[in-house]
Amino acid sequence: MSKPTIYSIAQRCGVSAATVSRVFNRPELVSTRVREQVTAVARELGYLPNPAARGLVTGRAETIGLIVSDITNPFFPLLVRSIQRTAERMGSSVMLVDAEESAAAEVRHVARLRGRVDGVIVASPRSSSAALREAAKGLPCVLLNRPLRDLSSVICDNTSALFDAGEHLHKHGHRSFALLAGPSASWAAARRSQAIRGWARGRGVELTELGPFRATFKGGRQAGAALLETGATAAFAFDDLTACGVLAELAGRGVAVPGDRSVVGCDDVLLARTVTPSLTTVTAPMDDLGATAVQVLTRQIEAPGGAPEHHRLPGVFVARDSTGPRSTS
Questions:
Q1: pLDDT at 105
Q2: Which UniProt keywords apply (predicted)?
């Protein structure tokens, strides 16, 4: 049996090949009755529209770019899945690129994706504001976890949840805290540090700031070693991966968690629930972050030149086993 084409579908339906083409490329120009008849026959024959050919008609690549700062960080897999699922429902594929924590690579990849994708999502970018504006000029673009006035953004705001984490530790008797800061180029790290400082000032407790540390397991181990040089009984790690490195370093030195130290992470990645002890953390709304970013980008693609959109989604504090009462020994 020969491969089905728009011509064989047209012959079966008694319409022109141009009408069949419009069903798949400009369905709003075709009556409901004809559209349903054509799509039913296409399904019966196993016809799949050619994306490249459709792109010549629509001017769309039906693909969006997704640049992540570090694909090895467990924050990203659930986010990537959410973006891919939403994009698929909206008729697009996703081209994933890892910037490997390099600001220069982010800008370079945006340039390379131009002309291959309809728009781009840049997740947790490390580039400067000026570099991001220049790279995204004329290209539909959404930033994830990085607000910029003239580019659309979707961010997870953990301020309230981190205040809740501080109150949780305070109720357990902790009065001396350490802030294990994340990468200096990370907006999220700066925002989280700002929230923790604000809580500590309001509570009148001691806060020792350490770092910045890379958002890696190794960076977490370095943060754990630095923590033990302080008198802090509780620590806020930049993210869950860093916190897991802290737990490993403390365990390797015979320091009990939460018996001797309490540790809080951020993001609630799978690792936070599987590590021992399970990690007290802040849950990021991954599904909503990814879905919102794709929806905003799709609106930009369909109506270029519109005003940037800015969305803030709150994180939620989750208490688990890595925090407990301050040791009195």
A1: 95
A2: DNA-binding, Transcription, Transcription regulation
